[in-house]
Design a protein that fits this description.
Length: 390
């Protein structure tokens, strides 16, 4: 058995875990070869996949045409396969809370991808997405709601969901939808032009001027003067290290822990880096079709899930140092799994299939920079008891 065949068998077993009935066995076969091509070439350029495929086709153009037809085939629903597998991976989640990050990214100034992902040990694992043909990163509310509904169906029962989002999603209608329709909590950063009602008086966020190292937490207030949404809480802080003002709106009473929770949102930025220049290089695909690009995002999401599951097992089994040269973990679970698969192919080891994401605390948190890690421990805030004067 060749090394590639071992990876093919593992992926075939992994993808058959879900209850999706493939209309044609060749659809599943092509999907396995596409994932193998991504892992091997560290790229999503379809021209580079052919050298990893074992088939009767001899011409590189034949492989490229096969993959393009697969991505443009509307009968293939790769999102359903991913939803089944990510739902299974989260089914054993037993902690009280699960954090989701909502964000958008633009490719080629042609398409905007709305991305909802689970915050997991320094990165995010994609849950649901939507490709919109537009150059702006601002999308309509109904598009966001559609993606969130997809994510809701995959969440484990009995677990509180907290959505983290940046300033572009600060909308009272979205907050109402999250709390009343989905039953989720939220931590959303708002702009300094936002208005809130405090003690019967409307004020702009920018009117709250804090000194470096100060923080203030409001009682229940209303936000948005034109269409007010009430019974939310604000957290203000001026960070000494970054010299930035932070304002977070939450559906629950706020405290210093609110900023630590919101900080988890930045892990999606690292995942977007993996999606683009530091990993799959999405823009190298050169796809200009909305359906094909959405299908490709599904293939990438499946590959990410497979590699993160592998990386988690590498750390759990104490084999991290075989693929990570750092004394302390310096790689993401995605990169650990990626390196482990390549090592297994080199040594012709059997590649195992894993099903569940562990909800236990990260046994080896990544420390990319010792200086930044030490600086983060020096953050101290003085909590004010009343709102500061303008």
């Amino acid at each position: 058995m060749s090394p590639t065949s071992r990876l093919y068998d593992a992926l075939n077993d992994f993808l058959r875990q879900c209850d999706i009935q493939w209309q044609d066995a060749r659809h599943l076969q092509t999907l396995c070869w596409m994932i193998i091509g991504m892992i091997g070439s560290q790229n999503v350029h379809l021209n580079g996949f052919g050298v990893y495929v074992r088939s009767r086709a001899q011409m590189a153009q034949s492989h490229q045409r096969r993959f393009r037809r697969w991505l443009s085939n509307r009968r293939i629903n790769v999102a359903s396969a991913h939803h089944a597998l990510i739902g299974q991976a989260l089914s054993n989640w037993q902690t009280q809370r699960l954090y989701l990050s909502l964000d958008t990214t633009v490719v080629w100034n042609c398409f905007c991808i709305v991305w909802v992902a689970v915050v997991y040990r320094g990165r995010t694992v994609p849950v649901a997405w939507k490709v919109v043909a537009q150059s702006s990163s601002t999308v309509r509310l109904w598009t966001i709601q559609r993606v969130l509904r997809q994510a809701q169906r995959l969440m484990p029962e009995g677990v509180a969901i907290v959505l983290l989002a940046d300033r572009g999603f600060a909308d009272g209608k979205l907050m109402k939808y999250l709390r009343e329709n989905l039953g989720w909590h939220f931590r959303i950063r708002i702009k300094r032009s936002f208005q809130f009602q405090h003690q019967g008086q409307w004020r702009q966020v920018s009117s709250v001027q804090l000194q470096p190292g100060q923080a203030y937490f409001t009682p229940a207030v209303s936000v948005g003067r034109t269409k007010p949404y009430d019974n939310v809480y604000l957290a203000f802080a001026h960070d000494k290290l970054s010299r930035e003002n932070w304002t977070i709106v939450s559906d629950e009473p706020t405290n210093l822990q609110t900023f630590a929770q919101y900080r988890l949102r930045f892990q999606v930025e690292e995942s977007f880096l993996d999606l683009k220049s530091n990993g799959f290089n999405l823009e190298a695909s050169r796809l200009r079709d909305e359906v094909a690009l959405s299908q490709l995002c599904g293939v990438i999401a499946l590959t990410m899930l497979f590699l993160v599951l592998q990386g988690g097992q590498v750390v759990a089994s104490g084999k991290r140092r075989q693929v990570d040269a750092h004394w302390k973990r310096g790689m993401s679970y995605l990169k650990l799994g990626w390196n482990w698969i390549r090592l297994a192919i080199t040594h012709q080891w059997k590649i195992h299939v894993y099903q569940f994401l562990s909800c236990s605390p990260d046994p080896q948190p990544a420390i990319a920079s010792r200086r930044q890690h030490d600086d983060s421990l020096k953050r101290e805030f003085t909590v004010l008891s009343r709102i500061p004067a303008s």
